[in-house]
Amino acid sequence: MNFGSDNMGPVAPEIMAAIAAANEGMAAAYGADEITTRLEARFSELFEIKIRIFPVVTGGAANSIALAALSPPWGSIFCHAESHINVDECGGPEFYSGGAKLITVPGEDAKFEPAALAEQLKAAWIGVVHSVQPAAVSITQSSECGAVYTPDEVAAISEVTKEYGLGLHMDGARFANAVSHLGCTPAEITWRTGVDILSFGATKGGAMAAEAIIVFGDDPGDDLCQEIEYRRKRGGHLLSKMRYCSAQLETYIRDGLWLRLAANANAMAKRLSDGLAALPGTSLAHPTQANEVFITLPEPLIAALQKDGFGFHRWGDRKTSNTVRLVTCFDTSAETVDELIAAAKLHLGRG
């Protein structure tokens, strides 16, 4: 009955089994094990291009290390005001980069338009020693409000980014949910639309602790990849027993497991969204496109549902807002969703 976050969900059985299978005997340390060395080929096949992959265990580390590799300490990183890197990473990108400045771009549903980005870049003091210099752009897929960028939208942002010679980073903590919603290939929403580096998330999708920095290209920049390697080590994220993290990543993408897990989470979010939005006095705050539902509810209903034991978070002003966020997981059942909807109906006198 807890819709607080997909971070609260369990580990998918297939991934737990993979961790147990990796726990056999001795293995080379620091990524020299057989499982980790297979990842590059596995992910290159998935993305239809040669990639370099750097496993880590947190999304914050993936984002911060990737962005630090794209920006010097005097650089600026453009992102949405509600992005995770701006709101929820405790200054991680600034810390790892040695001082790069995050500059926020406005936009609906925690997405920004190419024109808004271009306006910010036109106003930047490029070449002026008194100002930070534009270095990178970061977009979140799916966004902090559960909205998904289409391939055309990413390509349009990339066009502006490349015009200014900047790197394009994608925070893919819920990348699987976005790909599942779009029905496209991973390539079509990343490197083919101009993304340079992806923070590939698996933890929210059913892993225990597994994320990865992915650098795209038939010949990924050696300097960039070497910088990521050293920054990962210096930042304390080069795992000695990396096989356990890598086993999760390998199993996650094997035979389409990652998309099957995401498809259930998305379907349950849509079921929940449709059911609650049909009730009187409610309204969706953002479109439900991935596995998050943002909906405004009457205050008495919020209190009643919380008293019933349903877990979720207020959004915006997290103490007083009557817009709430409900998140579904890979194992959320239709019965659990219907139970919440039925309780809401009952409290509104519609049961």
Summary tags:
13 helices, 2 domains, 351 residues, 11 strands, alpha/beta, 4-stranded antiparallel sheet, 42% helix, Aspartate Aminotransferase, domain 1, globular, Aspartate Aminotransferase, domain 2
Describe it.
It contains 13 helices and eleven strands. The protein is an alpha/beta fold. The chain has two domains: 12-256, 3-Layer(aba) Sandwich (Aspartate Aminotransferase, domain 2); 259-347, Aspartate Aminotransferase, domain 1 (Alpha-Beta Complex). A seven-stranded mixed β-sheet has the order 1-7-6-5-4-2-3, sandwiched between helices. A four-stranded antiparallel β-sheet has the order 8-9-11-10, covered by helices on one side. Strand 8 (283-284) and strand 9 (292-296) form a beta hairpin. It is globular and about 65 Å long. The model has no long low-confidence stretch (mean pLDDT 96).
List the helices and strands and how they pair.
Blueprint: H1 13-22, H2 34-47, E1 51-56, H3 59-70, E2 75-80, H4 84-87, H5 92-97, E3 101-105, H6 114-123, E4 133-140, H7 151-163, E5 167-172, H8 175-182, E6 197-201, E7 211-216, H9 222-234, H10 243-253, H11 257-277, E8 283-284, E9 292-296, H12 299-308, E10 313-314, E11 323-327, H13 334-347
Parallel strand pairs: 2-3, 2-4, 4-5, 5-6
Antiparallel strand pairs: 1-7, 6-7, 8-9, 9-11, 10-11
Helix pairs in contact: 1-10, 2-10, 3-9, 6-7, 8-11, 11-13, 12-13
